[in-house]
Amino acid sequence: MSTLERCWGWNGEWACENEYPDHMVPRDEFYLERSRRRGLQAMCKLCSKSRERQNNPKRTRLVSIATKSVGGQKIFRALPKYRRREIMKKLWDANKDSEDFVISHKEKLPRIYKEINKNPPREKIIYPKEGYVYIFKNYDMDSIKIGKTDDVGKRLSAAQTWGRYKCLYYKMSEDCKLLEKNVHDVLFHRRVVEEGLGNEHFRVNLEYAKKVIDHEAARIQSEYDRESPRLVQASG
Ligand SMILES: [Zn+2]
Predict the structure, then answer these.
(1) Contacts of 96 (CB under 8 A, 6+ apart)
(2) Which is it for strands 30-32 and 40-44: parallel, antiparallel or unpaired?
(3) In what order do the strands lie in the sheet with 131-138?
(4) How many A from CA of 6 to the centre of ligand 1?
(5) Cβ-based neighbour number of residue 110 at 10 Å
(6) Which of 17, 79, 160, 207 could form a disulfide with 83 if both were Cys (CB 3.0 to 4.6 A apart)?
(7) Residues 6 or more apart whose Cβ sits within 8 Å of residue 7
(8) Who contacts 35 (Cβ-Cβ below 8 Å, separation ≥6)?
(9) Within the chain, how many helices (H) and strands (E) appear?
(10) The whole model's pTM is what?
(11) In terms of Cα–Cα distance, which of 215, 62, 194 is closest to 138?
(12) Is the distance from CB of 105 to CB of 57 less than 8 angstroms?
């Protein structure tokens, strides 16, 4: 019989509560964690697994939809557990195969100063020329947002405070402001005009939007190459 250890639960909740109402759990039921004094995680395996499930971004998204659907968090929490489970299960079944649902925060997105191996300017400059033009899908508006940035990941996080966005494409350019402007001009007739939305949202086929960006980027690049030809090695 292994000795008992306290499970500290997670966020004031214990997944192990039914089995161990006094929170004293057999030592074997903990994952090892050497850096801790007792060599175990603070919570037992059951609680740890439950935390992982709850930290699942898809689940977080579902909970937020579920609470909205019943009229708010208070109402949702007041429902009996079986009702909450039913609602969640229904949502889960309806959405489990949908890619759109998960917004990955682990995606590797580029930063221009890292990519071109330069230090970012110390003072805030108004117009850093090199950067990216990106396409973010907006799942709430069923549109895409096309804009420019020096840091795609940061831009995406900022956008995600307004809605569900995912980065679908980005293109590096030596003059991202010009590239953005040209792309916006070409797609002008597909712009989504709606209060408070700014002028960067478009309803347009993704492949077409990519093509426009690539095409305009190549055009700008060729201008640049003409103005400042790459160094050619002098021949003997
Ligand atoms: Zn536990």
Answers:
(1) none
(2) antiparallel
(3) 165-173, 131-138, 143-149, 201-202
(4) 8
(5) 17
(6) 79
(7) 14, 16, 20, 23, 24, 25, 29, 30, 42, 43, 44, 47
(8) none
(9) 8, 8
(10) 0.50
(11) 194
(12) yes
Ligand 1 centroid to residue 15 C-alpha, Å = 6
Distance from the alpha carbon of residue 23 to the mean position of ligand 1, in angstroms = 7
- Whole-number Å distance, alpha carbon 62 to ligand 1 midpoint, is 25
Closest CA to 170 of 140, 201, 199, 213: 213
Q: List the chain pLDDT tens, one digit each, 236 residues.
A: 679 999 998 877 888 988 999 999 999 999 998 888 899 999 999 999 888 777 666 677 778 788 888 888 888 888 898 888 888 888 877 776 666 555 444 566 778 878 888 777 776 555 568 899 999 998 887 899 999 998 999 899 888 877 788 999 999 998 999 999 999 999 999 998 876 778 899 999 999 999 999 999 999 988 877 776 554 444 44
Task: Give helix 57-70 / helix 81-95 axis angle, nearest 10°.
Answer: 120
The dihedral through the CA atoms of 52, 56, 61, 66 has a sign that is negative
Rounded to 10 degrees, what is the CA torsion of 107, 112, 117, 121?
A: -130
Alpha-carbon span 201 to 236, nearest angstrom: 54
